[in-house]
Amino acid sequence: MPDAPARRPVVWVAQHDSRGVNLTGASRFGEIYVLFKDDVYPDTVDEAMPGVLRRATKELRDFNPAQDFLCLSGAPLHLAMCATVLGRLFPEDGVNVLRWDRVEGAYYPIRLMPAIEETIDAE
User: Fold this and answer.
1) What b/e sequence results for 1-17 when a residue is b if at least 16 CB atoms lie within 10 Å of its CB, and e otherwise?
2) 48, 84, 113, 119: which one has the fewest Cβ atoms less than 10 Å from its Cβ?
3) β partners of residue 12
């Protein structure tokens, strides 16, 4: 993770390997930082996921919800874990994400805000 008090925005990529998607378009939103290079496969998911959760929680503490982005690319399990961790770390702030538009061939920023909790009265 880049260090510096006034650092450039970071595009956090949950999972990406060298054969994966080209992230050049995402780099216009910040410095690319890949959390995981390897995928988790069905036969190893039970033993791998606690480690994925620990590492995602440790790394994403440096996520700045005001300027950083979570790139919606990579392995779905890693992406789900990162989104869950960010929701827990920043429940009031919302999260910037980058969505790939395959028609336009570009990433677009979206701000995901936390859900408003509603009380449902059972009558």
Assistant:
1) eeeeeeeeebbbbbbbe
2) 119
3) 33, 70
pTM for this model (two decimals): 0.80
- Please check whether residue 119 lies inside any domain of the structure: no
99 inside domain: yes
Q: Based on the structure, what is the number of domains in the chain? A: 1
In a domain, 82, yes or no: yes
Residue 100 domain boundaries: 10-112
On whether residue 31 sits in a domain, the answer given is yes
Q: Looking up tokens 């770390």, which residue turns up? A: 89
d(CA 1, CA 71): 15
pLDDT by residue (tens digit) across 89-107?
998 888 999 999 989 999 9
- On the CB side of 101, CA atoms within 13 Å amount to 7
What is the tens place of the pLDDT at every residue in 19-34?
A: 767 889 999 999 999 9
Six-digit token string for 116:
């408003």
Where b means 16+ CB within 10 Å and e means fewer, 23-32 reads bebbeebbee
